[in-house]
Amino acid sequence: MERLAIDLSWKSSQIEGNTYSLLETERLIKEKETALGKTKEEAIMLLNHKDALDFIIENPDYLKPLTVSKIEDIHSVLIKELDVERNLRRRRVGISGTNYRPLENEFQILEALKSSCDLINKKENVFEKALLALVLISYIQPFMDGNKRTARIVSNALLMDEGFCPLSFRTVDSVEYKKAMLLFYEQNNISRFKEIFITQFEFAVKTYF
């Protein structure tokens, strides 16, 4: 599980622009050794990922059922000691590389997130639940920052609660991940992201278990 935690923390952070290498991430998590030439915020981001994963391992039923407040709790762990606002955003956010504009009104954001939780909770198939959490939280962009990181942790928590291995996304190219997400943002087309999800689950089973 430690190997998986390191890979997951590294890749999830890399997708968000973190420049730590996998080896540097391992040293940081195992020995608390920060890498030369990297920012303090990058190290905090990685350690927060590890803390979030530890939290869902220690509290396997925490997201049952999935609620807005519990998603906010996961987000709070991920942005701890970073200059990021907590709780649902009250201001507009933009996403580079797309014309898609997330909801702006905090009440609309809350309703959209509640509706997503209700939809996910009604699903019986855990893979469907995890995939929906992954794309819908990212799509709604409920927070000022840390949305995709939160989505990945919530998605993995749902898998782990049912006894399945989490996804590290280790072999996914960050650009391809973003392209698949943009396809969903702009066209509500989940096909490319579904392919990534399936191949990464297969990779996780073969690699970590």
Kindly describe this structure.
- This protein has 209 residues and is mostly helical.
- Helix content is 64%, strand content 0%.
- It has 9 helices and no strands.
- The chain is globular and about 45 Å long.
Summarize the structure.
The chain is mainly α and 209 residues long.
Secondary structure elements and their pairing?
Blueprint: H1 2-15, H2 22-31, H3 40-58, H4 68-78, H5 106-122, H6 126-140, H7 147-161, H8 174-187, H9 191-208
Helix pairs in contact: 1-2, 1-3, 3-7, 4-7, 5-6, 6-7, 8-9
Overall structural class, as computed from helix and strand content, comes to mainly alpha
Question: What is the share of helical residues?
Answer: 55-70%
Number of domains: 1
The second-level CATH architecture is: Orthogonal Bundle
Query: What is the CATH top level name?
Result: Mainly Alpha
Q: What is the CATH fold-level name?
A: Fic-like fold
N to C succession of SSEs: HHHHHHHHH
SS elements, strand count: 0
- What does the largest sheet look like? none
Count of helical regions: 9
Which regions are unreliable across 5 or more consecutive residues at pLDDT < 50? none
- What's the mean pLDDT score? 95
Q: What separation lies between the terminal Cα atoms? A: 9 Å
Please name the fourth-level CATH homologous superfamily: Fido-like domain
Shape: globular
- Strand residue content: under 5%
Rg over C-alpha atoms, rounded to the nearest angstrom:
16 Å
